[in-house]
Amino acid sequence: AARSTPAPAHRKLSRKEVKELSARLQPKYRDFLELVDLIITDEEKEVFLQITDDYQKDRFIESFWRRRSIDSQGLRTDYQAVHTHRVEMAKEQFKNLYNDRAKMLIINGPPDAVIAIDCPEVYVPIQIWYYDRLEVLKSKVYLIFYQPYGVGEYKLWLPLDGEAVLTVRGTGPGSRVDYNKCF
Question: Is the Cβ–Cβ distance between 96 and 106 less than 8 Å?
Answer without folding.
Answer: no
